Amino acid sequence: MVNIDYALNVICKETKIIGTENKDLLSSVNRVLAEDIYSKDNLPPFNKSSKDGYAIKSEDTLNCSKENVCKLKVKGIIKAGDFINDTLKNGEAYKIMTGAPIPKGADAVVKIEDIEIKDDNLFIFEPINENNNIIKFGEEIKIGDLAIKKDTVIRPVEIGVLASLGYSSVKVYKAPTVALIITGDELVDINSDIKNGQIRNSNEYSLKALVTNLNAEVLSLGIVSDDRENLKEKMKYALEKADIVITSGGASVGDYDFVKDILKEIGADIKFSKIAIKPGKPVTFATFNEKLFFALPGNPSSLITTFEKFVKPTIEKIMGKDDFHSEQFKVIAMYDFECEIGREKYVYVEIKKKDGNYYAYKVGSQCSNHLMTMSRANGIIVIPKEIGHVKAGEAFNGEFIFGINFKKYIKE
Ligand code: AMP
Ligand code: MG
Known about the structure:
Number of strands: 28
Shape: elongated
Bound molecules: adenosine monophosphate, magnesium ion
CATH superfamily of the largest domain: MoaB/Mog-like domain
Helix content: 10-25%
CATH architecture of the largest domain: 3-Layer(aba) Sandwich
Strand content: 25-35%
């Protein structure tokens, strides 16, 4: 049995970027840029007004005051998208809308709230500085400047930047294809009624959701019965077609848990097959050529915990995100419980914040077969390996769990 950090280190060492791919702009959100993005344009491409107002020559307003009101002649109106081929002379003004190009000869915009207008006459009551309310040509970025660095995660704001620079597609790190093999003779699909001894195959759906949430590609091979030859064929096929293979179930020590044996048989390099984590001990990690193989436990909350802890960072690293750790904080247990010595425990709880401190409340049984507990939780407390009893009032490290949404978001 290996420690969590050891397991993460081994996995991290085996995990490499598998290439790059071009994505059209919108599908690149949350992906990682695999190229530097340089500006193809000057932004803005012309001097433009940042306000609705009047384009003027600032020198015409030098001596303006409430006592000495200046009067300028309004020649016309420029709206966004217009281009006026005229040069403003002293004593003249153009009404101008936000985003419209500043006409030649003008060097300032006085905003509409600061003036009075009567017929075509504009009255100004104070001096207006040069460049007032003008967004200058190339002020935001110039042709050839670096706009977004390689390795940046593309958020909606970067989508906007790329769109403004005229990029309709970008090069990002390639998403791995993740094959899913679900083992278990007890499983039926979610549309089926449950007969004696059967349960619905929830893991396939959780796994698909987990993988697609990370923007990776799913290759689902469905339920495979606990039949050695059949399973072996599916595993070989998956290793051929996918970059990462995940099996659910069949990885423990039961009579029909064949995954590990098959891995040995086909010559995969098994790096470890047990991790000191609860839920989730029976995790096998193996490599086969350049492919990565995770045999995850069938217990639903073990499966999700180990996916989050070990597979998610793997997929993220392949896709250019190299951040393994979620933020931890001190959390105080609010109930007593017993736990297993020898493994690091991830205890699913509801975390509440009061007076700047975090408190952990019980939400249900920690049996790794129960997904309901995880679904009711908004966080975990991490109980170290050597601890077997937790008493209310003791402090541990805690973190908010994955999949958190606003409904479950922390209540102050
Ligand atoms: P296993 O890891 O195959 O020994 O399975 C451990 C437990 O998880 C058993 O109680 C199974 O019935 C349950 N289980 C296995 N696979 C699934 C699945 N695909 N969906 C829901 N529960 C499962
Ligand atoms: Mg099984």
